[in-house]
Amino acid sequence: MDSGIISSDARLDATVAVVTAVFQVLFLCRTAYGAVSHRSHIRNLAERCMKAATRAFAQTPHSDGERLVLEKVSELRLQIARLFIKYICALLCMTLLIVLWRAMRKAPLFVSPATTLAAAVAFWIFALLDAFPAILTARRLNAMYIIMTGYWAATLSPWHVQPTNASQLSLLYLAFARMPAVGIATTPALVAVCSLFPLLVLGLRVGTGEMPEVRPFAIEFCAFIGTVVASTSVQQVLTYRIERSLQYKKMATDFNATSSLLHLMCDSVIELDADLRMVEHSPSLAALLLRGRPGATLAGTDFTDLLANAAEAGRAVELLRGLEDCPRDGVNAQAFQTHLMDSDTNKFRTEVFQVMYHTPEGHARHLIGLRDVTDQGSLSGSRAVESFSILPRSSTPMSLACSSIGSKASGPSGPNVNAQENANAGKFLSLLVDVDLQVVHTSSSFAYLGRHPAELFSTTGMQLLDRALAEVSFETPISLSALEFRLGSHYEVVSATVQLVQNPAVRSYLILVCAPSGLMPPKGSSEFSSVADLETGKHRELLVGAEYQNKLDIDLHLSARHRQGDGHLLFLYVLEKIRRLIARAADVPPSWVYFASHFLSHLASDGSSSSKGTIHCDESSFDRFHYSAVLWLTAHNSTTGGEVQFFDAQRGDWRMTVKPRPGRLAIFTSGWESIHRVTPLLIGERWSLPLFASVKAPVNTTRLSKACLRPSSTKQWEYCQDRLHQWLNAAEEDFS
Ligand SMILES: O=C(O)CCC(=O)C(=O)O
Ligand SMILES: [Fe+2]
C-alpha cells in the first residue's frame, strides 16, 4: 500500500516536473523572441533605467526646476515620515500591550527583556515625535532614517535575539518597518548604506561562528537588495508625480495668463473641444453675432458654422487643426484672420487667436480669442497666418525642392513641418502674386511687397514661371529646381514651388522660394524703401492730354477715356501698387488707404508752366493728405535740374536728393517732416504724377449701428461713442 502511494507520488512529481519544464521552455523561448524583436525598445528602456538610477543617486540639482522638484519630494517624504511615526507608534503600542499583558499573566515572554526595553524606548521617542511634529523637519529625515536602521541592526545583535530567532526578527523588521520606511530617506544611496548595518551585524555573527546557520544572513542579503530597489522605485514615483503636478500647475498658470490676455485683447473668448465645438455658451460672442435670443445657447455649436462661408470654414479648420501636430505637453498658439457672420448675415473680418493645449486627461482643447478687425488694425500683423493663403501643410514638393539646395538652405526635417514656420525661420521666401495685377500681394519679406515678379526673377526665370503657371493646379503644386532670382546686380539660382491659391477676392498664385540667406533682408533693416523703381518701361503711357492735367480726383472713367488700352491698365496697376506700398509703410491694411487727390504735373524749362518749385510740405495743402507718392515719368539730374530735394530741419540743409527717372516712385509722409522742393528745371520738359493718400479706418456702419442700437457691453458703448464722434466730425470728402 505504502509503496503504491510512494510510486504515485513519484509519478506525480515526474509529471509536474515535465509539464513545468515544458512551460519553462515555452516561457524562455517567448522571452528570447520578445527580447530580439523589441531589442531597440529594450535598449531604450535600459538607458532610461540607467538614467533614472543615476538621477536617483545623484542629488545635486542642476537647475531651479530640479531644485524645486527635490524640495517638493522632500515635503512629500516629510508627510510620509509623519504617517510612518503614527503607524510605528500604533504597532509598538500594541506589541508592548501584549508583552505587558503576558507579563501580568506570568505567561512566557516571546521577546528578551532587552528587546522589550528597546521597544519601549523606541515607543517613547516616536510618541514624542508624534506629539511634537515640529521636531521633525525635512532636513532631519535622513538622520531619523540612519538612527532607525542603526536601532534595527542593534536589535539583531546577540544581546537581543537568539541565533534561532534572528531570521524571524529580520523578516518581521523587513515587512513591518524597513520596507515602509524606505520612503523617508531622501536618497536610495543612503538606504543602501544603512541597509549594510544589519547585514554587517548578521555577517559578523555568522563569521565568528556565534550563529551556526547562514540562512538569516541570506535573508538579510535579500532584504538589502529589496530595500534598495524599493527605495529607488519610491524615489522615481515621487519625482514623477511631483514633476507631473508641477507641469500641470505651470500649464494652468500659462493657460490662465493666456486666457486673461485674450480677454483683454479680444471681443470674445471661447473654448472649443477637439471637434471644434464650443464647450460652453459665450454671452460676448452671442452679442457679437446678434445671437443673444433668450434661451438660445452657443454651447455645442460647431465653430465653423459661425464662419462666413464653406471656403473660410475649410481654411479655418485646416489652420486650427494645424497645431495638433505640436508637442502635447505645451501650450501652442497662432493667429490668423477669417470672416465671421452674424445672424443678419453681415460678414466681418475677424482676427482669431488660437491657443491649443491638452487637458490632463489628454483631450485637445482650443482657447479662441476673437477680435473684430473690420475697422481696427490687426494685433498679430505680419505674424498672422493669412487665412487666404493655404500654405501646403507638409510642403512635400517644397521639402524635395529644398533638399536639393543642400547646405545653402536645408529643407525641413519632418513631414509635419509647416511651410509658414519655415518661412518665418528664414528658409523660405513666400511670394503671393496677384495674377491680374502681376504684383506681389503678400510676402514673408516686406521688401518684395508690391514688386512685379519680373523685378524679382530673370527673363528665363519668368518664362519658367509662366510655363509652370500654365500647368499648375490648386491640388498639385509644381516644383522648379533652377529659378534665377535677382539679388542686386546678379542672379542666384534657387529652387521653388508654385501653387495656385484659393482666394475669393484675388486670383493669385504662391511661389515658395528656398531662400539663401541673401534673399532675406536682415530683420529690423529698413525693408521698406521710400524710393522704388517700377520698371515696366512704359510709364510715358501714363501721360495724357491737358484735360487730364487739371484733374485732382482720381477719375477712372476719364483715365480709361484718355489713356487707351495699356495706359489705363498701367494706371490701375500703379495706383494699386502705390496703395499697397503706402499701406505697408503705414502698417495698416490696404483697405485703410484712400487716394485723396492726384494730378499730372508738367514743367517746362522755357518757363511756360506755372510751378516755381516752391519749398513745401503736402499736408499744408489739405490736412487729409497723410502720405504722398510721386511717380516720375521723365528723367532728370543735376545738369537738367528738376530733381526733388528733401529738407533736414535739424541741420537746416537738404538731406536727400532724388533723381527722377521714368517709373521711379517716392513715398513719404505728407507732414512737416517731409519738406521738399523740385529744383529749377534747366533743360527740357518734366512730367510727374504726384498722389496723396489718406490713411484711416473705414467706418463700419454695420458694426456702428450694432454697437449703438443694442450695446451689450461697455466696449460697445465706447466704440459707439468713439465712432459716432469720428463720423459726425469727419470732413465731407471722407464720404465721397
Ligand atoms: O513732381 C514732383 O516731383 C513733386 C511734386 C510735388 O512735390 C507736389 O506736387 O507736391
Ligand atoms: Fe509735394
Please name the defining characteristics of this protein.
six-stranded antiparallel β-sheet, Pro_4_hyd_alph_FE2OG_OXY, Beta-Lactamase, 736 residues, binds 2-oxoglutaric acid, transmembrane, alpha+beta, membrane, five-stranded antiparallel β-sheet, dioxygenase activity, L-ascorbic acid binding, binds fe (ii) ion
Question: What's the helix and strand layout?
Answer:
Layout: H1 2-37, H2 39-57, H3 64-104, H4 113-131, H5 141-155, H6 166-181, H7 188-207, H8 215-265, E1 268-272, H9 283-288, H10 310-322, E2 332-341, E3 347-358, E4 364-372, H11 396-403, H12 419-425, E5 428-434, E6 439-443, H13 453-456, H14 459-471, E7 478-487, E8 490-501, E9 508-514, E10 531-533, H15 546-549, H16 556-562, H17 566-586, E11 593-598, E12 601-604, E13 627-632, E14 644-648, E15 653-658, E16 664-669, E17 676-678, E18 685-695, H18 701-709, H19 714-729
Antiparallel strand pairs: 1-4, 2-3, 3-4, 5-6, 5-9, 7-8, 8-9, 10-16, 11-18, 12-18, 13-16, 13-18, 14-15, 14-17
Helix pairs in contact: 3-4, 3-8, 5-7, 6-8, 7-8, 16-17, 18-19
CATH secondary-structure class of the largest domain: Mainly Beta
- Which residues sit in consecutive blocks of at least 5 with pLDDT less than 50? 386-427, 521-529, 732-736
Strand content: 15-25%
List bound small molecules. 2-oxoglutaric acid, fe (ii) ion
Broad shape: elongated
**Biggest sheet layout:** 6 strands, antiparallel
Mean pLDDT: 76
**Record field, number of beta strands:** 18
